[in-house]
């Protein structure tokens, strides 16, 4: 019988009465292949048509494919005061695994994961402090979204050079709209995008703006329109969650182009004309990342206790390749993209990670490539 993933909405505003159990020991005697495993996925914005919805799809697939795995998805909302109490509530509810896909939980797990040694924690899109904290029960990974963004930057550079295309002006300007400033996971998209664009054409200029929200589509549309109209950007790449839908609307209104994020976002506009303005989308692979982590746990080979990266070298990420993409790019350019992916896999091209550089590095880049 097919299992149905249970999704729970919770609102917790106090840690009163939640006690952490610090005297547990890990028991590896039972086989994860046969015993019943109870898991929770804590997240938010489950219907954002992007990163978080994709995460839920990976959780659903794991819940369906592994008969001995029972996962409950818990919407803890985006209110920071819910984060710790929601985690502790889950910790005290008998789960074997607690999975999260949010960078905000890195420092939280540093503090609380050691108090629950019998629980395995899976954190995607975040980092833990393994050098300073003993975390043998934590698996954490950041996505090499910079690698997929590198390919997006190359594509944007290709499009802005294609002056025969309707709406393309003579200026070599492309744009970026991020969900939040000074956040490594968003900077990772920006850095890869700029490096990919300038790798393809060193003369490319990149304008940027931050919504400081992952929900405000009206603000994202306004920022996108400013880049299209006032800064001569031909194409804008967004990394701003559901807010980025406004960028697509703006692109359609002014006859320009856009690149989506995290999933093939042409699917959001089926039957609508905005769809034709979305050249491609970066595919971060959060769904596959979560699925693989659950699978590894069940098979007994989840590598906890250290930080991981998930990217093109692990066959996670890339660009959405659909009919619309193929109408805008030729076979020669696709060959260049494929060659570039192989170079990234082999380490011949190393895309800078925002997790390894300072904010000053990003600010200098913003200044260097601005129109």
Strand order of the largest sheet: 1-3-2-4-5-6-12
Principal-axis shape: elongated
Provide the number of structural domains. Answer: 2
Rg to the nearest angstrom?
Answer: 21 Å
CATH superfamily of the largest domain: Response regulator
Helix/sheet category: alpha/beta
Folded structure, characterized:
With 371 residues, this protein is of the alpha/beta class. The chain has 2 domains: 6-143 and 286-313, Rossmann fold; 145-283 and 330-369, Rossmann fold. The chain has helices at residues 51-65, 83-91, 106-112, 145-161, 184-200, 217-229, 245-254, 286-299, 323-328, 331-346, 359-369; strands spanning 6-9, 37-43, 69-75, 97-101, 120-124, 138-143, 173-178, 205-210, 235-239, 257-260, 278-283, 306-310, 318-319. The strands form 2 sheets. It has a 7-stranded parallel β-sheet, with helices on both faces. A 6-stranded mixed β-sheet has the order 8-7-9-10-11-13, with helices on both faces. Helix 4 (145-161) packs across helix 5 and helix 4 (145-161) runs antiparallel to helix 10. The chain is elongated and about 60 Å long. The model is unreliable at 9-29 (pLDDT under 50).
Keywords summarizing the entry:
13 strands, seven-stranded parallel β-sheet, 11 helices, Rossmann fold, alpha/beta
Would you summarize the structure shown here?
The chain is of the alpha/beta class.
């Amino acid at each position: 019988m097919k299992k149905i993933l249970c999704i729970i909405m919770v609102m917790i505003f106090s840690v009163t009465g939640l006690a952490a159990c610090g005297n547990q020991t890990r028991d590896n005697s039972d086989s994860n292949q046969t015993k019943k495993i109870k898991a929770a996925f804590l997240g938010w914005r489950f219907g954002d048509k992007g990163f978080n919805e994709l995460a839920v799809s990976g959780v659903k697939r794991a819940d369906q494919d592994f008969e001995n795995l029972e996962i409950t998805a818990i919407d803890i909302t985006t209110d920071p005061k819910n984060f710790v109490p929601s985690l502790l509530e889950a910790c005290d509810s008998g789960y074997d695994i607690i999975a999260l896909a949010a960078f905000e939980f890195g420092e939280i797990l540093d503090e609380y994961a050691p108090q629950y040694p019998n629980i395995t924690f899976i954190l995607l899109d975040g980092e833990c402090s393994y050098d300073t904290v003993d975390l043998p029960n934590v698996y954490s990974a950041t996505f090499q979204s910079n690698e997929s963004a590198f390919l997006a930057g190359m594509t944007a550079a290709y499009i802005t050079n294609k002056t025969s295309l309707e709406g393309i002006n003579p200026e070599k300007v492309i744009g970026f709209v991020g969900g939040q400033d000074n956040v490594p996971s968003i900077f990772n998209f920006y850095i890869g995008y700029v490096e990919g664009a300038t790798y393809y054409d060193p003369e490319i200029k990149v304008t940027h703006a931050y919504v400081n929200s992952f929900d405000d589509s009206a603000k994202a549309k306004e920022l996108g329109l400013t880049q299209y109209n006032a800064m001569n950007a031909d194409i804008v790449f967004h990394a701003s969650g559901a807010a980025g839908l406004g960028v697509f609307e703006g692109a359609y209104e002014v006859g320009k182009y856009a690149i989506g994020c995290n999933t093939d976002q042409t699917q959001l506009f089926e039957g609508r004309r905005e769809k034709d303005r979305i050249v491609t989308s970066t595919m971060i692979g959060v769904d596959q990342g979560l699925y693989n982590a659950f699978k590894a746990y069940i098979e007994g080979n989840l590598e906890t206790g250290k930080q991981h990266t998930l990217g093109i070298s692990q066959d996670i990420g890339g660009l959405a390749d659909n009919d619309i993409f193929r109408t805008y790019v030729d076979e020669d350019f696709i060959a260049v993209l494929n060659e570039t992916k192989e170079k990234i896999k082999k380490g011949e091209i190393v895309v800078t990670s925002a997790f390894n550089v300072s904010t000053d590095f990003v600010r200098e880049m913003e200044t260097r490539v601005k129109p």
